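User: Here's a chain of 641 residues. Predict its fold as tokens.
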Amino acid sequence: MLSHLFNPIQIGNMTVKNRLMMSAMSINFGVDERCHVTDQLIEYFVERARGEVGMMLVGGGSVHPGGQELPDLPQMYDDSCIPSLKKMVERVKRYDTRFGVQLMHGGRQSYLPIKVAPSAIPAPAVVKGEVRALEVKEIKELVACFGDSARRCREAGFDFIEIHGAHGYLINQFMAPNSNIRIDEYGGSFGNRTRFLFEIIEAIQEQAGTEFPLGIRINGNDYIENGWELKDTVRLAPLLEKAGVAYLHISGGVYGSTELTIPSMYTPQGCFVHLAEAVEKVVDIPVITVGRIKDPEHANQILKDGKADMVSMGRSFLADPQYPRKAREGKFSQIRPCVGCCLGCIHAVLAKEPGSCVVNPDVGREYKIKEEAASQTPLKVVVVGAGPAGMAAARMFALKGHEPLICERESDSGGLLALAAKAPGRGELGDILHFFKEEMERLGVETRYDTPLSRDLLNEIKPDKVILATGSLPDMPVIKGLFQTAMGLITNVDLLKGREKAGDRVIVLGGGMTGLITADFLADQGKQVVVLNRKKSFAEEMSSNDRYYLRERLKKGKVDLYKNVAIQAFTDDGAVFKSNGQTLTLTKFDTVVISEKQQSIRDAKKLVTNTNAQFYFIGDAKSPRHLMYCISEAEEIARSV
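Assistant: Prediction complete.
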């Protein structure tokens, strides 16, 4: 079925068993105080090699301490790193996966007090701090550092290396006119701006050998004013092939670009494929594409259409390390999907925290989790609520050999997440719900709809454990005039469920994630929308990448946003409020949508008495929070009993 995806490919002198690459990701865990890799990082990669990926890259391999992108990434700038790298390679190579390292220098995008770059121009976004222009002598030293680091990788036993020349890091900074205003041999003309890259290639070939496969990740487009463009990439690609590069890995975006390097669910799947397709036409070496490619059939079609020779994925392999094996076996519904929220991965990492995954709580914990046989004393478990937390708990209980049953008071599963998936651009949230539903069927977990927890049900099942995943509902605030207004008063839940309809001029009370996606839902219908946010920031619980695209949508929808709001009173057709020291009045509105706080639903707690079952609250029923904590808590409770 996926004949193109699972066809071997030759890259230099290296045969790769399939066309799937796990791209380098700066995961920000699994190193010690010297930035040498530990068992945590080793087992993270072993788990993904076991999943049958063809090629795989260690991310963030720093060639110099002055270019360390993040504090907890592996270093390649000292021979002392080799023993731990050897250990990792030996563990991974048992699984016939081609294993490489992406070598990089962060330049002005490094999280360091003083950063170096081609020119003393700060990064346009994300990373702040002093930037110093490199002297020519220092540039030559960094060229040598790339060569030395490549030698260490080869000595450690890696199969190949990849130079990171994309995403606004140092090499890309040299190539792009907006970050390189030098007037020496490293600035100005196209040849001068690419000189640093070609000197690095030469140094690597001298130190690691010309037969050691060397790939390069470059941007097809920086998507920023006066940046590197597709015409530049098409011009550069044949020159790289002539220089002996084994493959080209085409991506896009820099810090501050209009199209983000790690795009969220709002962007089309395969958003950078057209860049690779353009490069594919001008070279004979393999071209790898990347950018929100998550569906195996989509990946196969890209290859079939000749748009690229290989497909690179990052977040999909965080979400499910077994992705390639399941795809090869045609078990598409068993692939745990990335939902494109960017929260556990890039958002956490940019906050200098360990990377993780909203839908896969095991990321970074692979070295702690041991496979256990199914329980020899199965427990009867009633899970109350068929939202993501409830289904995640039931799934894990079933996998552990227990006998879960889900009771759900509504006529369908999904909970509030199913409503969030109805908002424009957020349909992929439904992918994880579909996964859990399919898993319930595969594992034989019974779900009883229109069935709240009751004494009769407890007497019928006689469960050992009751998992209360009953979710939450909107909390109605007490604000002067709110319950006396002539405007329609509805909640975001009733709106998204279709129980209530809003008028043409709507005030949304609440500027968190639910408030903003509710505003977008209304604006998409052509309604005039004003958001009153009583907090200092908008949608703090979202990842910055996801929030960026949502805010751009709200701009296009002409949604008016106010923060730091102190509401003095609601009137019959609007509100009087203060925002940033100004008193403002809204008039001629017809609807108020409450989309602020949530309160846990705990009415089932009254059934705790007169039963021997142990009760546990998880998810929003415990405390309204993000999806990441709901799924993590659900799986942990099933593992712990």
